[in-house]
Fold each of these.
Amino acid sequence: MPREEGESPGYTFFMSVRVRFAPSPTGRLHVGNVRTALYNWLFARRQGGTFVLRIEDTDAARSESRFEEQLCRDLRWLGLQWDEGVEVGGEFGPYRQSERYPLYREQARGLLQQGHAYRCFCSPEELERVRAERLAAGHPPGYAGTCRDLDPGEAARRVKQGEPAVLRFRVREGAVSFDDLVFGRLEFDCRQIGDFVLQRSDGSPQYNFAVVVDDLGMRISHVIRGEGHVSNTPRQLLLYEALGEPPPRFAHLSTILGPDGAKLSKRHGSTSLGEFREQGFAPEALVNYLALLGWSPEGEGREILSREELCREFDLSRVHRAPAVFDQTKLTWVNRNHLRDRPAAELLPLVLPALQRRGWVGEDPPGPVSRWLESLIEALRKYLESGEALAQAAEVVFDFRPERDLEQPETREVLESDGAVRTIRAFQKALGGQDRIEVVDFKQAVKTAGKETGVRGRDLYHPIRIALTGRGSGPELDRVVELAESGRGLPLPSPPPGVRQRVERVLALLP
RNA sequence: GGCCCCAUCGUCUAGGGGACUAGGCCGCCGGCCUCUCACGCCGGAAACACGGGUUCGAAUCCCGUUGGGGCUACCA
């Protein structure tokens, strides 16, 4: 959806592009926030700008440092390294709001002195009562202005005496407008706004105030954030105005929805970045899919894009305004495309955790085991939608339990068909007595069994497949043989049985 | 309640008044391949929310309706 106002107005030629991602450390990184971070990062890379990571932890009750650490780890895992901010430093720090209180206090003092702000002594209960009244009368529920015209000297005296007070911003009359880089021109009537809080009674800064002081202090040129903030923008614009500073450009991003059209939340399944990492999704795939959720490159049929292509082409003017529905099925498809041509050795870290969770592989597998696992991945490649999906497909190798599988109706049906058991016996006999069964030996044995029983094609392979895996479907039998034989002597928690062992165990259960 | 935003196949989207018989990806359905499930390849069904304008001509511009979302805090 291209628009006239691009993101490169004249002044960017002499003013450098600086963007920021400013999460609150109150939980795991959510895909909606990840996309915001990604768009900021892509915009910075495309424009040759700086990507800043700032932590908004003014809500002391909900903020935890472990969430901050996790957040940084998640961002790095995704490959969204920040140029400036927490953990890496920079010349406009500190980058944690809890460490910037002196800065907020200084600006608050200035605003108070110039009359842009005033003390308010209203109690929360009083405020709540007035709000309910105004709402009932059909008025905007904003602050009624009770303390607006208190004498400043009198107010200062009450504060000195220890009376709790907040600092409120005196909203002017008229309207505020701005050109949003994705939504276009937006205008707000100041009567809708109401005098908002700058500083709480405990002295901590309120969100809108802290953001403006920080964005100014960090020389942010473009604020790219969630749509929920468009209604905060006029408040912030008013603050820039009072502070006598030019505001940055704004770009708001629509919300990400779940399949039912409601805002994406836990009940829709996986929503945190960590969950996708644990399921064995590649960071490149997440980046690719999330970039496409609300944005599209120029040209048709371009779905699989590398990080480099995205950096080269990302463009705020093509960002969609409507909310987008998160579709894990498509993410899976994108993931498969990114994994498809990757060497098995690179895939191992993605698959290994899922294998370990199932208890099939121990911690720190030794070299021979790793090499075998690589051949496993190679053999099961077609099932590689994610590390988790591949591990599930590996059941045919690790989870051989004929006692259980032979009870399945579909398996029984095959085994009860004419000549099935006879075919398996003939196959067992044809395997011969050598220690290790190679694929050629296996092929020969199938052939011999076929000749002996007169069975061919499906009727020949199907019983043998069941004898080897306990299941009616799975990867090519050659592959299964290869894996079972090469894996049987390996130092695994419970090494997979070899071909002969499998056939024996199945036959033992058969009449 | 008030204010703001949004609206193309089930989903993500292309679309800038005539190139639209509305294109592409995912998913779905069918076929091919094949010892099986899958992978892959080929084909198919599937949308401009509705009503009014403006115009020679509207998916595209305007107004309204409906539907969805956001905000309306001493949260961020």
Amino acid sequence: MKDFYSKVYEIVELIPYGRVTTYGAIAEALGARKSSRLVGIAMNLSHELVPNLPAHRVVNRNGVLTGKHHFIGANTMENLLSNEGIEIVDDVIKNFKLLFWNPREEL
DNA sequence: ACAGTGACTACAT
DNA sequence: AATGTAGCCACTG
């Protein structure tokens, strides 16, 4: 078993283009449903560790871009997502339920 | 070393 | 339906 963070990054890198997932889904896929916070922390640390990580494809369970302020610019996350064809309105992903990618189904 | 905090979520009031 | 509490654990002051 790898480190929790490593597994988180592994899954995030697997998120397909134009799809999104949630912190909780990742945590659950790792067998640690209650550790969803750690996933967010892992994302925060990923800046230095894995700069290429598509962290913009990870949102909270409501499809809200809670972490947008942690990106380089205020609109970076929105831009990256809309660039992949994902519609963002008021920091919320439109059709989130449709775009949701469940890591558990892929593992 | 200790306490506060945070890119979260589920469960209880 | 809306708030409050609990659990996770690494990082920072």
